[in-house]
Structure formats: C-alpha cells, structure tokens
C-alpha cells in the first residue's frame, strides 16, 4: 500500500495488514461516513442524559472509587480535563513511535464503533495528529492492564489539549507548538470524552499487534535458518516425512515439516538414516514438533489480538439502539495478557532450540566441522563467542517469560481489585521477540559459515538463504568483530528480507 493512499476506518474491520501500513509505512486514515454517524448519535445520547442529570459513570460521577461522587452537568468539561491531567502520570522510557502510532490507530478504530459517546470532531483531531505524524511522547510504564491502559493513553491524549510533549518530524517539542504548526486548535473535552479516550487496552494491543507481525516473520525465518543448519550438519530429513506428522495431527507440526522438505528439496548436503548416524539430535530431528508448537500458539495469540483490534473496550458503553448505557469491564486486559504470555513462551522456545543448534555447529565434538568454524583454531577464535551471546539471550528470555498474567494488585481503594498486568506481559513479549531475532541471526551466521567446509550443494530454498547472506557478509577467514556479522544477519531477518527472498520462490506456510 502506498502512502498517498488512505485507509478508511469503520471500527470493525481493521486488519494486521492495515495496521502495518499505517504504523510502519505512515499511510493516512479517514473515518467512514457510517462511523461518523454512529459516533454523532452516541454523543447526542450522552449529552441528553447528562442534561437530565442522570447518574452515569464517568459522566455525572467521579472515577474508580469516586464513582459514588455526583458531578453536575456544569462541571462536565472540568471533570474530563482533570481526568486526562491526573492520569498522565506514566514513567519509564518512552514507547517507540511505531507503538504510539499503533495506539492512536487502535483507539480511533475502537471509538469509530460508535459505542463510546465521543464526538466525531474529537476523534478527527486524533486522526489529524496521526496523519501529520505528530506522535505523543508516551512513557512505557504505569499501566495495570485493567481499567485499560489509563496512564499511557492519558499521555497519548495530552497533545489534543495542547499539553504534554510530542515528536514531530523526528524532534521532541511542546504539544502546543506542534499543534500550531499543523493548524490544529486544542480541543475542549465534553461529557465522557476524556474517559472514552483513555479507558481501553490500546497500548498492550498495539505492542501485541507489533509482536504478532514480528513473530510471523521470525517463525518462517527459523524454518529457513534451521534448514541451513540441517545441511551444515549433514542431517537426516527423513524425520520430516509427511506420514510421521499426519499420525500426530498438529497443524503447526505438519506445516513445519512441509516447509523443511521444500527448503531442502534437491539438497545433496543431507544424509539418510544409517549413512552418518541412525538419528539426529532432538534440536534437528524435532524441528517440526518444536517450531510447529510455537506456530500453533502464535495462531491462538493472533486470533485474540485480531479480535481486540476491533473491540469496544471502554466503560460505560452507549447502546443507542436500545437506549441504554451499560457499565461493565471490557477494558480488562486478561485476554491480551494471556496471549502475550503464551506468545512469548512459544517464541522463547524458538531461540532455545536455535541456541542448541548453534552449539552443534561450533562444537567439534558434536560435528565433523572445524572447532568454532575457523581453520586456524588457537590463533583464531572464530565464532566461539557467538554461542556465548546466544546462550546469554536465551537465559535472559527465561527470566522474561515468567508470566505477568498470574499477578494482580488491587487498586483504587480495592474498587478495582483484580487487574491483568497485560501491559507488562506485552512489553516483555516484545523484548523476548527481539532477543529471538538475534539468536536466529547468530544461527544464520554460523550455519552459513559451516557450509564453507562442506561440498555446499544446498537445497532449493537454503541456497537462496545462503546466497543472500553472502551478498553482505563474506566467509570468515580471519577473526573480525563478531557484532558486525550478527548485525548484518539480524538486519536481513528483522527487515523481512530473508523470508521475502525465499518465499517469493518457495511455498512456505505458517
């Protein structure tokens, strides 16, 4: 999708492809006519109720424990302004711009559903910020993942009021200055609008949408890179026989084995059972079972996130068709917390098994390859320490994989007595995925180097992967700075280039 195109927001049809286009490629968005109509009807309904002084949470009452405190309609604007200012108390390093763009997009999409009692003009102001690439500076810490991502979303909304700070054209500046530069006046929040803006799961959902897109790329990259290792170690691909996978029945396992067979097609590097050994070690033989289980978990998380991307997640919600305001708990991040914890565990295992393959590549006791993949061992250390780095990342992931979703701390004087910690789970998930990409980069470097000591008659898919890395990284003949080798491979993986190059010529499935 080109940047001069525009994505129409309906509230119930946002896809991962559209998310990527807006977040990464900066494609602009606009509200559909239907969304504008639904929001206007919902806002008028709230205004009518507020004028009648009816008791509505967050409209004519305070928030959290203050839900029993009555607020007059004359104080409606002050209540919403105070909400945003008081809740903007996040701390920690700022979130990346891509995650903030995702938060803005997802909040716009949720509000476009027309259940939040917010004016189309207020949502349009948020769209103006997004389309002009005015990105609020949002601290990464401070959300419990229930009552929504309150603190982060409050920081996201400050610029609408001319408060806080933004990044604009790559430079941090006061929001008031950025608004002036793009010709946007600060808005005045009306009844319920502040609550509608911050009562949702959009920070954790944005992080998880980003994680899903990255994980999909890495799961395919892992198959490609592990196939290179199979060849470098003269592995036995008979373990990938389709009948073996079918009698167990797990879809991820079946697809992974098919990928491995496709990648290794016509390879003369592989062996038959009994030719070199009867069976390979688990890190080679069980690639379909391990990678496949991670893929199945990925699909579960993908489904949860896809649903949440198009969900109404604030409270209360306005149902104009039946004339009711319903208070509930759609802001609770439990589905996303579980998805994040499951996904990070699944992805950590991709790195775990990759590190074991790296060890087999560099350890001469486990292969017929030169020690640490150098011909002049002793004077040269070769890729000895690359395995150390991989082991370090794998160990770090084990700490990060402690599930955040099993924790809860009461808040708001015990009114909000169970929370999801979904934002913490999501942030840790993204950290795990980043570490996984680096471990795979190390395996990519080592497997490609190992093939320099073999006849190098690769399969249809592995040949593409080998030649791609060799375009940018020559074989190791003398010691050099290993971090640059890792960075080169990591860039090819992280950018999606490795997967794209292979999949344009081969049918690989996730």
Short note summarizing the structure:
The chain has 510 residues and is mainly alpha-helical.
Write the layout of secondary structure elements.
Elements: E1 7-9, H1 16-23, E2 29-31, H2 33-51, H3 76-87, E3 91-94, H4 97-111, H5 120-131, E4 134-136, E5 139-141, H6 150-157, E6 165-168, E7 171-174, H7 175-182, H8 193-198, H9 202-232, H10 242-246, H11 251-263, H12 282-285, H13 287-308, E8 317-319, E9 324-326, H14 334-362, H15 384-400, H16 422-450, H17 460-472, H18 482-494, H19 497-503
Parallel strand pairs: 1-2
Antiparallel strand pairs: 3-5, 4-6, 6-7, 8-9
Helix pairs in contact: 3-6, 4-5, 4-9, 9-13, 9-14, 9-16, 9-17, 11-13, 13-14, 14-15, 14-16, 15-16, 16-18, 17-19
N-to-C CA distance: 23 Å
Q: In order across it, which strands form the biggest sheet? A: 4-6-7
How many structural domains? 2
What's the count of strands? 9
| Helical content (DSSP H or I, runs of 4+) | 40-55%
Rg calculated over all Cα atoms? 26 Å
Order of helices and strands: EHEHHEHHEEHEEHHHHHHHEEHHHHHH
- The CATH topology label of the largest domain is Fumarase C, Chain A, domain 2
Tell me which CATH architecture of the largest domain applies here: Up-down Bundle
State the name of the first-level CATH class of the largest domain: Mainly Alpha
Helix-and-strand structural type: mainly alpha
Assigned CATH superfamily of the largest domain: Fumarase/aspartase (Central domain)
Number of helices: 19
Which blocks of ≥5 consecutive residues have pLDDT under 50?
none
Modified residues (2,3-didehydroalanine (Ser)): 147
Main location: cytoplasm
Protein name: Histidine ammonia-lyase
Cross-link (5-imidazolinone (Ala-Gly)): 146-148
